[in-house]
Structure formats: structure tokens, C-alpha cells
Write a structure and sequence with these properties.
about 140 residues, Hypothetical Protein Ychn, Chain: A, 5-stranded parallel sheet, about 25% strand, single chain
Length: about 140
């Protein structure tokens, strides 16, 4: 991008609990967006569980941080790519994911879905378009 804004894509591949990877990734994403960068997220492999509905964390000993994903739209993070094959391999569908949305200022602040279902091939093309790709 010629205006100095770089396109950052964060690829989330880890389950949300049991390690700090998912939480730390979310923190870095929010920090990047605060610096007016173009930020998108990918959820693939076990990373799809990060945005699953009704997360129960009692047995993990970790606090449930999944509600923080609902704030992504407030940070202008409205491109959340979910890899179709990862969902299918884990027996999940879009209905099993949180309803994450953003308000589109170009469309009279209409609320729109942030989750974009993509295939592995489409995801590879999207990654090629980024200035920076960070995987966790």
C-alpha cells in the first residue's frame, strides 16, 4: 500500500487454551490495529476453536478470553478468514462459530459479518497479497 499502511495477516493455528499462543496473538493483533495498520486474521487448523461458540474453560485453569473477539470490529478488524477444510476436519460449521460482526461506515453503519469462509487455495492467494504474515 502506498500510503504507508502495511497489510498484516495473523494466522491462528493453535487451540485457544492450554498454551498462551492464542491469547498473546490476540493481544498483538489489537496492538497492531491500534497503530492504524490493515489487519486481518486467519483461523485454521485447531485455531478455528478460538472463535467457537460457548467455550468452557473451567478445566483448563485459564480465563475465557473469547468475548474479546467480539471487540475486533471496534478496532476496524473486519476480515476474519476461516479455512473451510479446517472446520470440516473438526466436524464444525459456521453455525458453531461466534457471530462476529462490524459496522460498515460506508453503508450507513450497517452491521455485517466479519467471518469470511475460504478454501486452502484461496487462503494461499490471500497470504501472497500481504506485506506481513505472522503465524502462531
Amino acid at each position: 500500500m502506498s500510503d504507508g499502511i502495511k497489510k498484516f495477516m495473523f494466522v491462528n493455528t493453535k487451540a485457544p487454551y492450554g498454551t498462551v499462543y492464542a491469547l498473546e496473538s490476540l493481544e498483538v493483533v489489537l496492538i497492531s490495529a491500534a497503530f492504524d495498520q490493515s489487519v486481518s486474521l486467519v483461523f485454521c487448523d485447531d485455531g478455528v476453536f478460538q472463535i467457537a461458540n460457548n467455550q468452557k474453560t473451567d478445566d483448563s485453569g485459564m480465563k475465557n478470553f473469547s468475548p474479546a473477539y467480539k471487540a475486533l470490529g471496534d478496532y476496524d478488524i473486519n476480515k476474519l478468514y476461516v479455512e473451510k477444510e479446517s472446520l470440516e476436519e473438526r466436524g464444525l460449521t459456521l453455525d458453531n462459530l461466534m457471530a462476529l460482526t462490524y459496522e460498515d461506515e460506508d453503508d450507513d453503519w450497517a452491521e455485517k459479518p466479519s467471518i469470511i469462509l475460504v478454501t486452502r487455495a484461496e487462503l494461499a492467494d490471500l497470504m501472497d497479497e500481504q506485506d506481513v504474515v505472522i503465524s502462531s
